[in-house]
Amino acid sequence: MIRMVLEPLAQLSKEGMRLTCPDGKIRWGHPILAGWIGDYPEYIKLFSAQFMSCPICVAPKDKMDAHPSLPYTYRSIDTHRMSHYVSVYAENHKLKKPSAVEKKKADYVPPTVQEKAEATAKMTLVEEWFTSQRLKVIDNFLWSIPYVTPRFLWKPDILHTLDLGMVKHSLEWMFNMLDEHDKALGDLFDITWMSISPHQSVTIPNKKYRAVKQWSGKEYRNAAHLMIPVLEATLLAYPSSEEQRQIFEKSLDCLSALVDFFLMANYNSFTFPDGRELDDEYRAELDRRTPPDDRDSVAWLSHNLAVFHNTKDAFLKYRATKTVKKDARIYSNGMAPNPDSDDEDVRKMTKAERTGLKKEAIEARKVFYEDYLIENASYNMPKVHLMGHFPPVIVQFGVLKYLSTSIVELNHTTLNDAYDRTNKV
Q1: Cα angle for residues 102, 106, 109 (degrees, 5° grid)
Q2: Under a CB-based contact definition with an 8 Å cutoff, are residues 265 and 158 in contact?
Q3: Do the beta carbons of residue 393 and residue 402 sit within 8 Å?
Q4: CA 231, CA 192: separation in Å to the nearest integer?
Q5: What is the Cα 244 distance to its own chain's centre?
Q6: C-alpha 304, offset from chain centre
Q7: What gap in Å lies between CA 224 and CA 234, rounded to an integer?
Q8: Beta bridge pairs of residue 18
Q9: For 342-379, what is each residue's pLDDT tens digit?
Q10: Which of 258, 335, 361, 348 is nearest to 304 (CA)?
Q11: In this model, does residue 340 exceed pLDDT 70?
Q12: pTM value?
C-alpha cells in the first residue's frame, strides 16, 4: 500500500515538477517526504521495526530506560543491501519450506538435507543483520524514497508520549506512593484538588481526580499543571516522619523534573547556542547536577529529563509487573523466618516470644518483598526512551507541539462514532 501511494512522490523527488510559488511565479521543485505524524504503534508498523524497539535508533529492547546522556546509535539503512537480503531470505525460505503449490508441480525436486542446512544458515545471517538494526525482515519501500531516513522522518508525538503517556503514569505512581504511606493521603489529595482557586490559565476540576472514569489528552495536560502544587500542599498538611519526608522530597524532585520537561516540550520557541551540535559530547554534559546555561532552553529540556532519570528510582517499585509481584511474594515468604515451623527452637518459645517472632517475620517479609520489587522492576518502556529524542528534533525542525498527533486527532471523531455503531468486525 505504501509503495502504491508514495511511488509517484519518489519519482518526483528525483525528476522534479513545476510548482506555483506564493509569489505567483512557477518554478521547478523537488517535493520530498519530510515527516510523518503518528503514534508509537503506527511508527513501528510503518518502519517495519521489531516489537519494543525505537523507531529511529537501535537501542536494545531491554535498555529502553537508559540514561539520556548516553550516546545513541541511530539506525542506518542501506536500501540495496536490504532488498538483496530480503530476496535471499525469501529464496531460501521457499527452498527450506516449499508451499503446497510448489510441491504439486511436475518439475519439483525435494531439497536435500545439505541444501536445507545451507538455506537455514543463509536465513540466519539475514535475520542477524535485521536484528542488529531492530527491524523485521521486510523490504520497506519507504527507505528507497530520496532523503527519507528513520531519524528525519520520525517526529515526536506529545499527545501519546507525554499527555496520555508519562503524565498518566506519573499520576498513577504518585497515588501508589500516597496510598502506601497512608490511605488518607489519597483522599487529602482529592480534597486539595477540589479546593484549587480559579485562575485564567488553568481549568478548575469539578470532580475528584479518582472519580473521573476516562481522561482525555486535554484533561491530562491540565492535570500536569496542577499536580505538583496540589501534591506539595497535600504533603505539607500531613504529619510525616523524617524518613517519610525524605521519600516525599525525592518523589517531588522526580515528578517536578518530569512536569518541567512536559511544560518545556510545549514551548512556542527554543534557544540553542550557535556553533554547537547536539552530539554525544553535548548530551553527556547534561548529566551534571548543576543547571545549564539559561540562554540554552534545549539544554534545560535535556537537563530536566536527566534529573528525572537520576531520581526515578523513587517510584521504581510501583513499576513492577504482576509476575514480579507474584515472585516477590514467593521470595519474601521463603526468606523470612517462619513462626509456625516445627523447629525445636520455635517450639520452646513462650507465647510472648512467638508473638514477637511473628512481628519480626511480617517486617522481614515486607523488607524482602520491597527489595525484590526494586531489584526486578524497571522503567523499560518506549515512552521513557523516546523522550530522549525530543531535543535533537527541536534543533533540526523547531517547535514540537505542531508535530503531535493531537492536531489531527479530531479528524478521527467521525470515524470513531461510525465504528462504535458497527459490530466491531
Answers
A1: 65
A2: yes
A3: no
A4: 8
A5: 29
A6: 17
A7: 16
A8: 28
A9: 666 666 777 777 777 778 888 888 888 888 988 999 99
A10: 258
A11: no
A12: 0.86
